[in-house]
Design goal:
The complex is a heterodimer of chains A (about 190) and B (about 90).
Chain A lengths: L10 H9 L3 H22 L3 H18 L10 H15 L5 H8 L3 H7 L14 H9 L3 H12 L4 H8 L3 H23 L4
Helix pairs in contact in A: 1-2, 2-3, 2-4, 2-8, 3-4, 4-9, 6-10, 7-10, 8-10, 9-10
Chain B lengths: L5 E2 L2 E2 H12 L5 H13 L1 H21 L6 H19 L4
Antiparallel strand pairs in B: 1-2
The chains are: A mainly alpha (about 190), B mainly alpha (about 90).
Chain lengths: ~190, ~90
């Protein structure tokens, strides 16, 4: 299946073969990473059609850029997510003001909404349905950092590379996003009291 | 929060600020030890740190895998092939 070998080819090998014009290698690369990139674009785009367009542009950029990709220290998924974010930015989604406003909220205020200094969270609040609802209720910037760090498992420096910011900013944004998720879980799990 | 305490040389607010970084192992061993000392002796921080940790773990377990959508994957590959064909065809 894979060149007569049972071991799947590495991402780096697929990139090299893609750069040489081998479309079957590119197909494997697309199949391997499209679900992760699609989730990222869906969480950030304004609607599903925009997300699909950004996804398409991401892989077209990967095809065109495969020969120029020199830095193997950056994982292919990190590279693809960086391309996806660039595609989304080109769509001019205009979400920066909301992100900046949210970041001015004092940490203690976020923490108190998340239950800091209050009684415990109900166990049912961390069920799958509750998590999906709470996650969907977050702003796109929070969903972005949670997808990158907690769902895709990117390292802090990789997430910083995707977003184009510092590791310190990633760390601060992640903490705030987690607090807001916990606050949403608490809201959803409470009976209004 | 009310009744914020100084435990193990750290205030509750300092522990709050570092909780995610501690969870991710992004602090020095000494800082993590001090936070653990505080949390051990501060019921409010122990409960909150436990809830934050549990919610992050639950998120990773419940939503960690991106949803599979075979039809969307096929559509993407078809659109890609179409676009790449257009790009590689000589203009005439």
């Amino acid at each position: 299946m894979f060149d007569g070998n049972d071991v799947p080819p590495s991402d780096a090998a697929l990139i090299r073969r893609t750069a040489a014009g081998e479309s079957s290698a590119f197909d494997i690369l697309v199949r391997r990473h499209q679900a992760a990139v699609r989730r990222f674009t869906r969480e950030l785009a304004g609607d599903p059609a925009q997300a699909e367009d950004a996804l398409l542009e991401t892989f077209l950029a990967a095809w065109r850029g495969s020969a120029r990709r020199r830095d193997d220290s950056v994982s292919v998924l990190t590279w693809l997510l960086t391309l996806a974010r660039q595609a989304l930015t080109r769509q001019n989604l205009g979400r920066q003001p909301a992100v900046q406003a949210a970041e001015n909220t004092p940490l203690r205020e976020l923490a108190q909404a998340a239950g800091w200094g209050r009684s415990g969270l109900a166990a049912e609040s961390t069920g799958r349905q509750a998590l999906e609802t709470a996650f969907a209720a977050l702003n796109p910037a929070d969903r972005e950092i949670l997808v990158l760090r907690d769902l895709e498992g990117l390292a802090e420096e990789e997430a910083a590379a995707v977003i184009g910011t510092s590791e310190a900013v990633v760390r601060a944004r992640l903490h705030r996003a987690r607090l807001r998720l916990l606050a949403k879980l608490r809201e959803g799990g409470s009976d209004g009291g | 929060m009310e009744g914020e305490r100084l435990v193990a040389g750290l205030h509750c607010g300092e522990v709050l600020a570092d909780l995610s970084a501690a969870l991710d192992g992004r602090l020095t061993a000494e800082r993590i030890r001090r936070i653990e000392d505080h949390v051990r002796d501060c019921e409010a921080c122990k409960r909150f740190a436990g809830e934050l940790t549990a919610s992050v773990r639950a998120l990773r377990e419940a939503l960690g895998e991106p949803p599979a959508d075979p039809q969307a994957e096929t559509r993407l590959l078809e659109r890609l092939q179409e676009r790449l064909r257009e790009e590689t065809q000589p203009h005439g």
